[in-house]
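Notebook entry, structure prediction.
Reason for the run: the old model in the group folder had no record of what sequence produced it. Starting over properly, with the input documented here first.
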Amino acid sequence: MAINKINHIPVNAQEALRFLKEGNNRFVNNISKNRDLLQKVLETKEEQRPFAAILSCMDSRVPAELIFDQGIGDIFSIRIAGNIISENVLGSLEYAVEVAGSKLIVVMGHTNCGAIKGACDNIRLGNLSALIDKIAPAIYRETSVTHDRNSHNHEFVNKVAHLNVHHSVEMILKQSPMIKKHCEQHDVLLVAAMYDVASGIVHFHDAQDELIKLRKAV
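New structure, fully documented this time:
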């Protein structure tokens, strides 16, 4: 069965990023928009027009819609422990940009992340073990901390979380030719971000370096 493309709001990538930054500023200052959610339900019952797709952790303290002060139908929210990349995650992101017309992809990690802590301690627990293994490359990359490389060292945990976000960005570009092409054509923007669970602030990081590295490697 063919998938029909969804008519999306004519928002470019930079506008989409600005919407999220402004929304996070409202959230941090406790001045979130007063939305008529029921009206939004009625408006989106036939189709959705999300301007961004956000890949974030499943942590209960990191709800993307609230953090960015967005309403029903505004963003795709893809959540998985450790904001790791899998075929299912890639498929969801590809749907967002290719079918629904989202102009922005945000890969967002966060401080004090339980999945990152588990990876730092190399926890072995059922199916969680395979998920933990996907975070391991970020641990190997973090070389500035040479002592107490475990979950009790908050500096180490947060540095690994930051590197893990950029690793996920790299995996998206390596494993999804579709998204990579959109990024190279500048019609989709891929950015990395870190959410501070203590302050509510989201810090954005340019993911362009990952794209440049991939071009040089070809």
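Summary: The CA atoms of residues 38 and 177 lie 38 Å apart.
The old model has been moved to the deprecated folder.
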